[in-house]
Amino acid sequence: MSNVTAVEIVRQERGTRSAHGDRDEVDDRTLERARRGDADAFASILDHYDHRLRALAFRVLRDRDAMDDALQEAAIKAFRALPGFRGDAAVGTWLYRITYTTCVNQLRHRHGQDEDARPGTSSAAGPAFEVDPADIVAARLDLRGALQRLSPIQRAAVFLVVQEGYDLETAGSILGVPTGTVASRLSNARAALRRVLDEPRNDGEER
Amino acid sequence: MNEHDDTTLRAALEAAEQPPAHGAGYRETLLTSLREEAARLPRSVTRDNRRPWFLRRDVLMAAAATVAVAAAVTVIALVGRETVREAVNPPSAEAAEVVAKARRSLASFETVRAELVWGQATVNWPFDSSNLTGPLTGEELRDQMSVQGSVELTQPRTVVITADGRWSWFNVPSGKIVQYDTTAADGTPTRIYVKPDFWTPPTRIEETVDWRTGSSRIYQPSYHWSPPDGTSSESAEYTAYDDVGYAPGPPDTYVEWRGPFPMPLAAWAALERGGVTDTTFEGRPTLTVTADVTPILMPTKGTDQATLYVQADSVALTVDAATGFPLRTVLYLKGDPVELYELRHLKLDGPVSPQDFTLEFPAGVDADRTDWGFREVTLSRAPALLGYSPFKLDQPPEGYGLERVTVAARNSWFCQVVTPDGVETRPLAFHDVFSLGYRRGFLHVTVTTRPTDGVDAAWLEYPFSDMALCGGSIEEPEAVQLTDGAFAGATAHLVLPPLGTPALWLEKNGLLVTVAGDLSRDELVRTAESLEPVD
């Protein structure tokens, strides 16, 4: 989604770096309009964060339709909750929190029908992500396979800390777990992913 | 292995995976939904529902009513009166020594007969939570609270407790005028009266618990509650519960096996860092250890009723100087007592009879029977019953013996989960749970094994508290690497909650293994390093 023109962007330095650049915050007027119930204003806020929210939701759910469902649900929840948003956290962080919670809830509801919904299971019987024909490079497949084998919280922690540049404390507030839990999950996930990157492979041979 | 820093990893991840675009019509559908939402839910109307569940008015009212009901069964007000008299002498022992003495005492005596007194203060919660977006931490909540009046005490009730896990108590409550003021979440002053003329309490409450068989019974005759202003009315002919199949201990326990003991037992770690004062209690020399603890907001487990426990920011434990036996525990919030347990007229190792633990329901009483699913088995049968090899202790902590071996094919309870737009009640389901009960006198250790599949992911993050699910403040687990036993090299998570049960857990090969009980941190780690599979 690229409809960000309705949002006036105020760039703020927030201390930690992001792979996508500095944390972008929506301007106060747009936020206030959304807070008062302006659906279009809120949609424009969502547009602004859309890529990152999609990335988080897909990283956790591993399925595009599930990603869309979760983001729709999270958007409604956030819209309802917006008048109570105090601004202690960045809007993006707050949306991440709601999105992550919604994704985890969706995973829970899939229990029973989908064994791979639960964390830490093998990808063998799980919902296969669609393989992009352009992504046949072995390293990418290996890395995606390694991601698939991580638990949802590990995948989310990798995304938030490694890719989005959040510190452990903020990531913990988004994931709803203590900082130490983020650190331990992240440590294991990093190790698993780095093992894949470090493994020697034969050119052109898929694993 | 080459070292890759996060920059390399980030680049590789971004090259490997970009999120897919939305499906067709996604944004149109979203915008329509948002507009419908804006039209359907006026902002002023929806505000209350967006609060964290424990700050919503209905929950506050329920909690206030709970406090009021608790106060209604109290009779003795000790306004400004302290039953433990403080001497002017300097401390005669270090806190750790007193705690160790108390533990030795609990490990050595076999029976207790006493009058148990429990007290709880009324607490004011003057919240204006209209701008809150998330749950308060224990500290934030504590700052907004004030203790009203004094600790109100129950009439002393006979309690008999045995080290092998039986206990019973008999209570005769009576009414007392209580005025309870609070402020609802929307700022509306609320006053609840509890008066004898509309509160007709049960004539007695009896409860028996038998840890050995995992069973308990509760009976209370009729009561009636009808405030004169008609705000609420409640009555019951009788209440009778006949429960079986309880687990040996946490995290699957629903009852307190040890009557008044859990509070001082749970405070070991905090108390070891406290200060000691020479005191007297009922004329006998006592030692009182006082320590600061981190306040925790704790929702109840195993119920769909949202109930608040705001625990203390300090705790005082008084033990008999001669025997070390715990006699009194007081929890304080900002200097005011909020909860109290006392054992008066204590008799240790006196005779008990089976009748002490027999509760026969009156004729015609149809008790609610609940089977929590745990059954005694032999160790050798357990792997076949469970379909996997569970874990036991190769070497239990010194003095502890294995007394209960149980399995549960299915087990579940409910937890209230805070979501951005309110609270949801969700089941926490388990299957093929293996639970072992080790005991040394009144001290307990529980070891459990269960498959992680189908278990709520958030619960697995912190299996000894609902806080991870409910969004409150929790103790951050310490990561501990085990160096011996079946899990050598594995990382375990360890918590020493200031007023909860010390616990350790780890996940491996699709199994969650827990160790919890009356142990110090080092004992807990050593115990976990003694885990071995049941052959």
Characterization of the model:
The complex is a heterodimer of chains A (about 210) and B (about 525). Chain A has helices spanning about 30-35, 40-60, 65-80, 90-110, 140-150, 150-165, 170-175, 180-200, and strands at about 10, 25. Chain A is mainly α and about 210 residues long. In chain A, helix 7 crosses helix 8. In chain A, about 50% of the residues are buried. Chain B is of the alpha+beta class and about 525 residues long. Chain B is about 20% helix and about 40% strand. Chain B contains 12 helices and 32 strands. The longest helix of chain B is centred in the N-terminal third of the chain and has 16 residues, at about 55-70. The interface between A and B is large, with 79 and 67 residues.
What about the largest sheet of chain A? 2 strands, antiparallel
Order of helices and strands of chain A: EEHHHHHHHH
Helix content of chain B: 10-25%
The dominant shape of chain A is globular
Low-confidence parts of chain B: 41-83, 86-91, 126-136, 172-203, 298-309, 417-423, 466-474
The oligomeric status of these chains comes to: heterodimer
Overall mean pLDDT of chain B: 70
Largest interface: A-B, 79 and 67 residues
Radius of gyration of chain A: 18 Å
How large is the radius of gyration of chain B?
25 Å
Percent of residues in helices of chain A:
55-70%
Strand order of the largest sheet of chain A: 1-2
Tell me the distance between the termini of chain B.
37 Å
Query: Would you report the number of β strands of chain B?
Result: 32
Strand content of chain B: 35-45%
Note the gap between the termini of chain A.
34 Å
Largest sheet of chain B: 15 strands, mixed
Counted by DSSP, the helix tally of chain A is 8
Mean pLDDT of chain A: 66
DSSP helical segment count of chain B: 12
